[in-house]
Write a structure and sequence with these properties.
With 289 residues, this protein is α/β, with parallel strands linked by helices. Helices cover 47% and strands 20% of the residues. Strands 7, 8, 9, 10, 11 and 12 form a six-stranded mixed beta sheet that branches. A five-stranded mixed beta sheet has the order 4-1-5-13-6. α2 packs across α7 (259-274) and α2 (94-105) packs antiparallel against α8. The longest helix is centred in the N-terminal third of the chain and has 67 residues, at 2-68. It is globular.
Length: 289
């Protein structure tokens, strides 16, 4: 009997011992799991903080770029020498250099987009370009869509004819065929003559109109004075009439209502005029006669 009681007692003690061991293992496992979870949370927190720091740095970089002025996008049509034309892959000329000087004054990076002339104003209106420099004359019609800076150059529309032409003045353009560059001031003003029987032939590029004149397809070309000089110098048998078709002023187009940019551009233009930079740029391309 005593042996039996002893055996039962021993069995109970062993069971208790096993239960205690089992409970300890569970507690250890739970502790390990909790520790791992805490460590993962710490890693996630560190990663989040690192991501936040990277985002903050990027924001600071962007803010610094904005503070420096950012990018200034100029829309032009590089078929209008000496104001804008191609030299290899680069767009050069009076307007290109004035735009670069303005960008430098504002601490901005200049980017030039070469597009069709009649697409310049829509590009500005849509916000794809910040400003337009393309030997652009200030007109009432254009002022309905964009705002203009102070004048930076004066120009005139000239008439190109063949050397043996009977056209000797603007009045003689009535009833003949006149070539113009699409969307330019010449196009606008010559269109008024259509009521008098004048036929207006519109070309995407100025030199195409001059080429058509040289080939006898049209009777005259109306285009800005300085490009007219360049085209006539490069094409045999043509001349420019002494009397101008119109006199006008060039300015920089910006999105209507963008007074902040307009004021900055006007401020830069004033500085460039006062320190002689503007005259130097023009003199580089247009020699005094």
């Amino acid at each position: 009997m005593k042996k039996k009681v002893l055996a039962i007692t021993m069995a109970a003690l062993m069971a208790a011992s096993l239960t205690a061991c089992g409970g300890g293992a569970k507690d250890t496992a739970a502790a390990d799991t909790a520790a791992a979870t805490t460590e993962e949370k710490a890693e996630d927190t560190t990663a989040a903080e690192s991501k936040d720091e990277t985002s903050a740095e990027a924001a600071e970089t962007e803010a610094a770029k904005d503070a420096a002025g950012g990018k200034l996008i100029m829309a032009t049509n590089a078929e209008f020498p000496p104001y804008e034309y191609h030299d290899g892959d680069a767009v050069v000329g009076i307007d290109a250099e004035i735009a670069k000087a303005i960008a430098d004054e504002l601490g901005m990076e200049l980017e030039i987009e070469d597009i069709a002339f009649d697409s310049i104003i829509p590009e500005i209106v849509s916000g794809k370009a910040d400003m337009g420099l393309a030997g652009m004359t200030v007109t009432e019609d254009r002022m309905q869509s964009v705002d203009f800076s102070d004048t930076y150059a004066k120009a005139s529309q000239k008439i190109i004819v063949t050397e043996d032409s009977e056209i000797v003045s603007p009045d003689d353009l009535k009833g003949v065929i006149v070539g113009v560059q699409l969307g330019t001031t010449g196009d606008i003003y010559v269109s008024d003559l259509e009521a008098d029987g004048t036929t207006v032939e519109r070309y995407n590029k100025g030199f195409e109109a001059v080429q058509a004149l040289s080939q006898g397809k049209i009777d005259a070309v109306v285009i800005d004075g300085e490009p007219a000089k360049t085209f006539v110098a490069e094409t045999e048998g043509l001349k420019i009439l002494d009397e101008s078709f119109t006199d006008e002023e060039y300015a920089i187009a910006v999105k209507k209502g963008n007074t902040e940019l307009l004021e900055k551009i006007n401020g830069a233009l004033k500085t460039l005029k006062d320190n002689g930079t503007l005259d130097e740029i023009v003199a580089k391309y247009i020699k005094a006669e």
